[in-house]
């Protein structure tokens, strides 16, 4: 039986055991945290238990992952398995890898059935992550049905908001051939006028340069004559 286990790196083949991929350049003098099976289970249970907090529209993921790391370290300290604490970014990266593996196994379960998946974390993750939005909404409505808030919502009639129909673009009437020809001739005439203006401007520049050159030559002659006169 095949077990799918995917790591978030390009061109990765399916493996039977999950590998930790680190994209952060850590200090090599410090010992690296090794994800044992029990440590991984602590991470899975802690992260799934905080899934609603992570799903909030406005939340600071960094603070949540620091809390996850704190809880995992507490569990490991109670078990006495390691004296190396796991960092928040290591929990985040490990969870991303596990999510990629979970999604691959979910696709396999859709094609071949749940019995074809033997990844040890799939069942626990699927019980939380596999719920559709309809199931989550149904559970929420069931919890509210016995409360006063739920009764108010159930008795309130809502006016459905219909989608706004897309605005149709105004169809421009087709121009007759005479108008198109006239427009073309006007554009050509504008181009010719612009070209004539540009040509006149270039001619003025040339005249200005020639006048400047003549003035410099005249000044040089005057200076030369003055120098010769002073020498005599």
Describe what this molecule looks like in 3D.
The protein has 232 residues and is an all-alpha fold. It has a domain at 37-145. The protein has eight helices and no strands. The relative contact order is 0.08. The termini are far apart. Keywords: DNA-binding. This is Myb/SANT-like DNA-binding domain. Pfam families: Myb_DNA-bind_4.
Question: What brief labels describe this structure?
Answer:
mainly alpha, single chain, 8 helices, 232 residues
Number of helices: 8
Distance between termini? 116 Å
The percent range for helix content is: 55-70%
Overall mean pLDDT: 77
Spans with pLDDT under 50 lasting ≥5 residues?
Answer: 6-17, 19-29, 156-161
Shape: elongated
GO molecular function, one term: DNA binding
Organism: Iconisemion striatum
InterPro entries: Myb_DNA-bind_4
Domain Myb/SANT-like DNA-binding: 35-128
Quick rundown:
It holds the Pfam family Myb_DNA-bind_4. The protein has helices at 37-49, 51-54, 61-79, 88-112, 122-129, 133-144, 148-155, 177-231. With 232 residues, it is mainly α.
Fold blueprint:
Blueprint lengths: L36 H13 L1 H4 L6 H19 L8 H25 L9 H8 L3 H12 L3 H8 L21 H55 L1
């Amino acid at each position: 039986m095949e077990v799918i286990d995917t790591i978030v790196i390009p061109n990765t083949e399916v493996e039977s055991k999950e590998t930790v991929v680190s994209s952060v350049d850590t200090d090599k003098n410090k010992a690296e945290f090794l994800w044992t099976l029990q440590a991984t289970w602590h991470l899975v249970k802690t992260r799934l238990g905080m899934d609603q907090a992570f799903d909030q529209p406005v939340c600071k993921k960094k603070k949540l992952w620091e809390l996850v790391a704190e809880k995992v370290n507490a569990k490991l300290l109670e078990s006495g398995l390691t004296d190396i604490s796991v960092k928040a970014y290591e929990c985040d990266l490990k969870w991303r890898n596990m999510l990629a593996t979970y999604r691959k196994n979910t696709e396999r379960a859709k094609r071949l059935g749940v019995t074809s998946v033997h990844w040890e974390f799939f069942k626990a993750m699927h019980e939380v992550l596999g719920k559709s939005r309809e199931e989550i909404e149904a559970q929420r409505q069931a919890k509210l049905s016995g409360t006063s808030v739920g009764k108010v919502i159930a008795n309130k009639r809502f006016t459905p908001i219909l989608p706004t129909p897309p605005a149709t673009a105004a169809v421009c009437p087709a121009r007759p051939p005479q108008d198109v020809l006239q427009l073309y001739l006007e554009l050509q005439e504008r181009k010719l006028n612009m070209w004539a203006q540009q040509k006149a401007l270039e001619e003025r520049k040339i005249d200005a340069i020639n006048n400047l050159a003549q003035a410099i030559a005249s000044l040089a002659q005057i200076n030369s004559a003055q120098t010769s006169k002073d020498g005599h």
